[in-house]
Amino acid sequence: QTKWNLPAAYPADNPHSENLALFAKDVAAATGDKLQITVHANASLFKAPDIKRAVQTGQVQIGEVLMSLHENEDPIYGVDVVPFLATSFAESKKLWAASRSAVEKKLASQGMMLLFAVPWAPQGIYAKKDLNSVEDMKGLKWRAYNVGTARIGELVGAQSVTVQAAELAQALATGVVNAFMTSAATGYDSKAWESVDHFYDTQAWIPKNMTFVNKAAFDALDKPTQDALLKAAAAAETRGWKMWEDKSGWYLDQLKAKGMKVQAPSPQLQAGLKKIGEQLTADWLKKAGAGGEAVIAAYKK
Amino acid sequence: MHDIGLVNLALILLGALILILGSGVWIAVTLGLIGFIAMWLTTSVPIGSVLATTVWSASASWTLAALPLFIWMGEILFRTRLSEEMFRGLSPWLQWLPGRLVHVNVVGCGIFAAVSGSSAATCATIGKIALPELEKRGYDPGISLGSLAGSGTLGLLIPPSIPMVVYAVTANVSVLQVFLGGFLPGLLVMALYSGYIILWSMLNPSKIPPRDPPMSFRRKLAESTKLIPCLLLILAVFLALVFGFATATECAAWGVAGALLLAWWSGTLNRKTFFESVMSATRLTCMIMFILAGAAYTTAAMAYTGIPAALAEWVKGQHLTPSMLALYLSIMYIILGCLIDGISMIVLTAVVVLPMVQQAGLDLIWFGVYLVIHVEMAQITPPVGFNLFVLQNMSGRDTLTVAKAAFPFFILLLAAVFIITEFPQIVLLLPQLAFPPS
Amino acid sequence: MRVFLDRLYLFSGYAAGAFLILIFGIMMFMSVGRQFGFNIPAGDDFASWCMAAMAFLGLAHTFKKGEIIRVGLVVEQFTGRKRWALEVLALTIATAFTLYFTWHAVTMTYDSWRFNDMAQGVLSVPLWIPQIGYASGLLILAIALVDEMVDVLRGNKPTYEKEPPSSPDEFVERVASGGAG
Ligand code: NA
Ligand code: NA
Fold first, then answer.
1. N or C: at which end does chain C have fewer Cβ atoms within 10 angstroms?
2. Which of C30, C119, C120 is closest, CB to CB, to A162?
3. Where is the stretch described as Disordered (chain C) (predicted)?
């Protein structure tokens, strides 16, 4: 009997954590409890920034993390947060198919193995005022928390503000920040309607969480257990994508029900954002080099 | 992987803790060793890597950076004459009240709590100012240490509050509503503390120094003008927070700026006092951070052993009514609170406890405040209680002596838990006024 | 050697103090700068790293000043030879643990360099750079502990030991100079 620990960063009732719990259950059932995975949700074992390192050095055998968190280390981890490159679940799936082997290769070079990746809901803009074009975004107090959001802020002429996620609610309430980007789901979880009233469903990008194992820990399993694990992983990936596709409309309805003005971006705003997206894709390609170009070429085919 | 049973493991760890602490090993090191033993007995993962990673992760923290700044602010104010003058300003008004200046601890911490989200920072800042003044005036050290330890925890209950943010994220509830929910219970706890101080002084009249000669009302007012600079400072920091000039963490930097300004204005800021204030604050921070590092590692080790989750599972297995559930959870959190720090207590048990609480029909905002009061208790229960450590460092008296002095205030926090369980409206009134339930 | 070691502890303590001032500077600049449209990219990361550097670089200095606290109730019951033995025991345990801790903190920092680990915020900074403060702070503490151990084994009184204050005036004096523990 083998016991694995799986640190994850999001609360236990987040769909990602729920999916992980089901995955752990599947694995236990398929191996007759020979492999037991304990999910430590809510950053209760390791915090998000440390999870990859913990798996890499064998402190835990398996972990889940937001893939783009590691984009500074290798641009391939950030392929799914290039704004307006893949804006629907269908496109996102296609992008994942095109980029998967590159991500697998990168992880393998670090002694890890990818099991599966599951998307979040598409990213939109939360604001305290009407945004009819990108010109309206000029001067916004814009939360910049990674390379992409900082670049967008820069390109639209917003004022980038550094605020940690933990302080965001207060920062919005007191006016330190008045616009930021995240998904309808995260906005719903953090009760965004208490301090902002507009949500633009720009579907800017669809980030993913990836679940991966330490290769040595995986190799130590016997063949039937390995197969059971991979099978449960494939099932978790399918289930996870379906969960989020089904739920993303529900989240938009919830924001509406709470009194937020939920709308698609005006053609003008969309056009302006698209242009910024092209600029950012070019930025990303420059960083990602030949490998990145191959991924984008495969995706656009 | 060895299987020795969680109860046995818990007993072994507790025994080791008492033994190692008792032999005079530094507290931070002891905690690290307990984590080491726990992992060595139960896991086969590289223990040293876990130690290095969790400690780095716990100390490279933005929200934590407010702690040394608030401590520094206290050190600066302490070196001006302002802290002494604040006492002279308050003194005429508190003379009639049994307990006299001891109430400064409660009121001072209560006010400071409105700008600080941490218990240790509140305790250290007000303690630095109040302890020497009370000692000089001949107040009983027991009551001044105890009330400081207890009142320092108000930093967590009166918004802003770091554990409330952690809870809100964990339970997916509104941070703003939990903040609002803590406000009235904060006042309740202050009232309980002051009530106890009054009662205690009436029972122990010999331990409180005699009344100062009475003053005319005009004199009293004149003396009170001495309060103005300190009140202005707190007010400025508070307004910076409310009007969006600063986030809750940056507030601490405003506090330092304000204290430096006051020190300069009162003519006590010079190279020597500046240097001393920096080094004093640095040492106190290092002391606290070292223990925090040990605690962060023990907490990770506990997560590996599964003891906290098993405890929560056990409570779940009892199938309790809501009020019995609250009672059982109280007992569980008090036990855990002795050993692990408050914030970890929230995240380690959340997975099991939150669904249980929801199922029992308890309001999650209410539960957040209930939980934060338990986190407050954890700050003043030995062997791991950060307010105790701060006060030990300041007063030179042992952790256990401080813990004994703080015990009545621990009981008063329990009383507050009982009261908000009986009258949940104390918590829910403000959140429901601000965000009417649809 | 004595002078060198004492300076090492003292100057790393000063470095910790400098990081405290730096945290203050970064936060003020972030907060005030926002009103005028300035932003420090990844300012939150920089403040966090200063926090870690400060916490660990100041440890040796704090230890030597006797401000790293412990439960002294039992130890203080003893005097003479028995007390000396207890102090040696406590120092041995603390030194062993700190050496172990230091070894792994250094390894972690080295791994960050080897793995090319990057900060995850707006700026891409190699993580081994801020981790140097953490690892070297622990290393200096380990040196201080070994130093103390040798000193106590030679029969000297531990430098971290202080008598409790005997009068309110002395108490106030102690509080003024830092901790009284
Ligand atoms: Na507070
Ligand atoms: Na405690």
1. N
2. C30
3. 159-181
